[in-house]
């Protein structure tokens, strides 16, 4: 695994705290910027590096995202765990470049998030554009931080 700024436990905690603050502030203004892709990448990092104390802050960030967006608790964490343990090892064999692989993994995560949104609310079109905006923002942030 490449070394990046996100491999530090303090940075993982601060990033999770920033995501929590952003979700609380933006949910008041009805803007659905979740940064769930960044938290998904941090979850993968915590699993790979066995940073279990940092994983607690990541789970709390997922819980705040889920409550501000109206999803069931722990649904995003369960999606990220299933993706990390079952689906993404298959996708990792297809992509040899780390930077492309990270973006594809975030895109696959958002496909599953869109599926969860559709199951919980029944609306697809409105949430689809929020998801596309979130994918673009997360890829931008991950591209800067990595």
* Number of separate helices: 6
**Biggest sheet layout:** none
Mean pLDDT: 83
Strand content: under 5%
Q: Give the end-to-end Cα distance, rounded to a whole number of Å.
A: 12 Å
The low-confidence parts are: none
Question: Which series of helices and strands comes N to C?
Answer: HHHHHH
What would you report as the Rg, rounded to the nearest angstrom?
A: 14 Å
Percent helix: over 70%
Q: Could you please describe the fold and organization of this structure?
A:
By secondary structure, this protein is mostly helical. It has one domain (5-145). 79% of the residues lie in helices and 0% in strands. It contains six helices and no strands. It has helices at 9-28, 36-49, 52-69, 75-92, 98-121, 125-145. Helix 2 packs across helix 4 (75-92), helix 4 packs antiparallel against helix 5 and helix 5 packs antiparallel against helix 6 (125-145). The longest helix is centred in the C-terminal third of the chain and has 24 residues, at 98-121. The N and C termini lie close together (12 Å). The model has no long low-confidence stretch (mean pLDDT 83).
Brief summary of the model shown:
This protein has helices spanning 9-28, 36-49, 52-69, 75-92, 98-121, 125-145.
Key structural traits:
146 residues, mainly alpha, globular
Topology of this protein?
Layout: H1 9-28, H2 36-49, H3 52-69, H4 75-92, H5 98-121, H6 125-145
Helix pairs in contact: 1-3, 2-3, 2-4, 2-5, 4-5, 5-6
């Amino acid at each position: 695994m490449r070394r990046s700024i996100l491999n530090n436990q303090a940075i993982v905690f601060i990033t999770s705290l920033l995501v929590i603050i952003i979700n609380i502030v933006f949910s008041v203004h009805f803007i659905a910027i979740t940064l769930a892709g960044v938290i998904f990448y941090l979850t993968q990092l915590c699993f790979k590096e066995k940073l279990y104390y940092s994983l607690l802050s990541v789970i709390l960030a997922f819980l705040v995202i889920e409550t501000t967006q109206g999803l069931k608790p722990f649904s995003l964490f369960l999606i990220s765990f299933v993706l990390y343990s079952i689906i993404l090892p298959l996708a990792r064999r297809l992509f040899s470049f780390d930077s492309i692989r990270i973006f594809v993994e975030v895109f696959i995560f958002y496909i599953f998030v869109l599926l969860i949104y559709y199951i919980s609310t029944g609306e697809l079109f409105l949430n689809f554009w929020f998801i596309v905006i979130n994918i673009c923002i997360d890829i931008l942030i991950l591209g800067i931080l990595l």
